Amino acid sequence: MHIYIYDNPLSQKKYDKILAKIETKITDLGLNGRIIRLGPMNSVFNAVENEIKKGAKTIVSVGSDNLFSQVLNSVAMLKAKNIYNNNLPMGIIPIGKENNDIAHCLGINSEEEACNILSARRIQQLDIGQANYNYFLGQAIISTKNTVMVIDDEYTLESNDEGEIRVINLPIKNKDVPESDVNAVDNQLQLLILSHNNKKIISRKKNKYNLFRFKKLVILNKNEPVIIDGSFKITTPVEIKIAKEKINLIVGRNRKF
Amino acid sequence: MFNKDSKEIITKQAETIIGPQIKVKGNFHGQGNVTIEGSVEGDIKTTSFLLVGDKAVINANIEAKDAKISGETKGNIKISGYLEITSSAKITGDIEALELSIEKGALLNGNCLMNKNKIATSPTNS
User: Do B28 and A155 touch (CB under 8 A)?
Assistant: First the structure.
């Protein structure tokens, strides 16, 4: 059975029309399932755990990147705890244009297109990153200011310029990275250090950015947190690596990887 | 053999790029091509090509398959293939290479060893 998890803000009246349209489309495509409406007090993890135990076949997050990140974390944690071992696919129906970069990266650009993509059921197994006990599909970001990185327990990295450090699994909103370099299927994360001074003139040929591959990275910064997938903040020290768990995602034909 | 065109291709395919604003401390072991424009203290090892840019400052022993050095290095350099030292390079330390070219203007303070038998037994696979 398909399980549709509705983001908390979707309980607002302004979303009624669009949700009705989605539900009609889903019914037309024969993808009916159970709808879970999250309230402020509901836990995504509990909802996902209950539905998996009841035999969910597909879990679809309906809303923004933030909800998808919570669902992804729940599914990955349950997998890590051996609560389930099958390859349960996850889908996304993005609502609105804002804060839906993950869906766009997967080639899902509208609610209607998302329903068609669910129906086509093109499933791809992808790597996910792990930052301490949290998981991410896209990237982890922190400022370079006062940040020290320890790579593979072998060497440390510091940047003298102000800028941004990105640990990338999938090139979500990363125009600076050649897409072929990071693809979430090579079992590798990539570390990219961008300087604000040259952010606008980055080009691979001019080597204006700093690029590293690694197995394990520890980020240290007493003042700033690491932000993962634009949704969670984690205080350092943060250990980042490729998670043992993989996820199955229903992706669009026009995905960016 | 290692001609100019192939070097440029390798540089563009660098898997690790250490820019001018980056400081690295420790043992840096890579398997792909490495470009260094910043500062490094420790050891550098790669099984592929190493490019040390003219602004780079390196206090480290270096091991690589092939290398082009244009910056300042202090430490021993061991290259199992071809080592190119350009006019802007300032090297303090011993160098070992199978093949070597040194451009006019380069500074080299150290011993130079080109013993084919010895180099051939020093792959950098660790």
Answer: yes
| Contact assessment for residue A254 and residue A201, using Cβ atoms and an 8 Å cutoff | no
Taking CB atoms and an 8 Å limit, are A154 and B17 in contact across chains?
no
Give the best residue of B9, B12, B24 to mutate against chain A (max A CB count within 10 A).
Answer: B24
Nearest to A90 by CA among A63, A105, A68: A68
For the whole prediction, is pTM greater than 0.80?
yes
Whether the CB of A207 is below 8 Å from some CB of chain B: the reply is: yes
The minimal CB distance from B26 to the residues A156, A159, A160 is found for A156
Of B22, B32, B42, the CB nearest to A159: B22
Q: How many residues does chain B have?
A: 126
Percent of chain A with pLDDT over 70: 91
Tell me the shortest Cα–Cα distance from A181 to chain B, in angstroms.
9
Contact present, B97 and B91 (Cβ < 8 Å)? no
| pLDDT tens over chain B, length 126 residues | 445 444 444 555 567 889 888 999 999 988 789 999 999 999 999 999 999 999 999 999 999 999 999 999 999 999 999 999 999 999 999 999 999 999 999 999 999 999 766 655 555 544
Query: From start to end of chain A, where are the E strands?
Result: 2-6, 33-37, 58-63, 89-94, 123-131, 134-136, 139-143, 148-151, 155-159, 163-168, 189-195, 210-214, 216-220, 226-228, 232-234, 238-250
Domains and CATH numbers, chain A: 2-121 (3.40.50.10330), 131-243 (2.60.200.40)
Domain ranges of chain B: 4-120
User: Does A210 contact B at CB distance below 8 Å?
Assistant: yes
Q: Determine which of A158, A208, A210, A216 to mutate to test the interface with B (most B C-beta atoms within 10 Å).
A: A210
Q: For residue A68, which of A94, A46, A35, A86 has the smallest C-alpha distance?
A: A94
